[in-house]
Amino acid sequence: MENFMRMLSTQAILLVYMAVGFYCRKRGIIEKKMQGKLTDFVLRITRCPV
Fold first, then answer.
1. Apex CA 17: angle with CA 4 and CA 43, to 5°?
2. 4, 15, 22, 24: which could form a disulfide with 29 (CB 3.0–4.6 Å)?
């Protein structure tokens, strides 16, 4: 059950990041050329320590 909660927590964080990214892209805060770098950044900070 603990692993399930950890997985759920990680997915919730990713969902929040995706929602914020979607909002920022629609409002013009994030430009097209920044998307690749931000993707790398988000993937690095959301990795769960083992």
1. 75
2. 24
- pLDDT, one tens digit per residue, over 17-29 is 889 988 988 998 8
Is residue 48 within 8 Å of 12, Cβ to Cβ? no
Q: How many Å separate Cα 46 from the centre of its chain?
A: 7
Identify the band that residue 47 occupies on the pLDDT scale cut at 50, 70 and 90.
Answer: confident
Instruction: Supply 19's token pair.
Output: 């929602």
Q: CA–CA separation, 3 vs 6, rounded Å?
A: 5
C-alpha distances (whole Å) from 48 to each of 3, 19, 21 are 12, 20, 20
The enclosing H or E element of 11 equals: helix 2-27
